[in-house]
Amino acid sequence: MDIKPLRYFVAIAKTASFTKAAQQLSVAQPAVSMAIKKLEADLGLTLIHRADRHVGLTDEGKRLLVHAEKIVQATDDALLEMGELQGLSQGEVRVGIPSMLGSYYFPPILMAFRHKYPTIALKVIEGGTWQLQQMLENGELDLSVIVAETLPDGLETQALIREEMRVTIATDHPFSQLERITPDAFFDEELVMFKEGYFHRRIVDKLAKACNKQPKIGFETNLIPLIKSITQQGFGISTLLSMVIEDDDELITRSFDPPIWLDLGIAWRKDSYLSKANRAFLEFVSEHGRYKR
Q1: 113, 109, 107: which is closest to 126 by C-alpha?
Q2: Check: CATH 3.40.190.290 for 162-260?
Q3: In what residue span(s) does the HTH lysR-type domain sit (predicted)?
């Protein structure tokens, strides 16, 4: 079976559109439509519903998608590995990094890696840990930083960094007089939070559920400077990683009671070929990590 129609089929399934799939694959839409019709004819099955501009998979299409994704991923892995056996001198690393780490932890590491390996292209995708984990599992990323406790069976991980989530407040907030902040006290305040899907928010939501509290979220934003500014002006309190707080931020941090520690790791798919470029990046990041227990 020609792999190209399966690649087109997977793209249509992910985008729910022949047009978007063609754009993603950089091919003409008629070529995509013809390939899918031929695939359906070869299999003797209807794989895609085409009605009222809505594109969806039939039950047979959904069954094929499970196998098609594995076949396409395995083919890409095989081509990559064969290319490296031929002495491929260049490569690409597609890595997902949550915004807090992308802004405050990874920049010097990424620049140092680029300096050591100038022929390797770095493609950094920023997003929430849940979104990045899904992209990793779907083969859209090669590596991703995730919260270690959420590791599914299909991924492997290597410890990267251990950081404390600290209550973040304005300098004149009453919490400044305390050494530690209980979850109950924290949830009595108006909060400035990341949006859902980010590990910052997932940890807070999990903590609220554990103590049977409903968070009072006054502001939702993924912009760390804005979180800091709102907190500085006393319009709410937040919780950020220690690395994010700088000397000139005019903010105070306190530990939760008990303290909350996050174990962050860099993950990859177990059943996928990890290229030389990705292995080099993984080794480099691990050497420069600061994981401590």
Answers
A1: 107
A2: yes
A3: 1-58
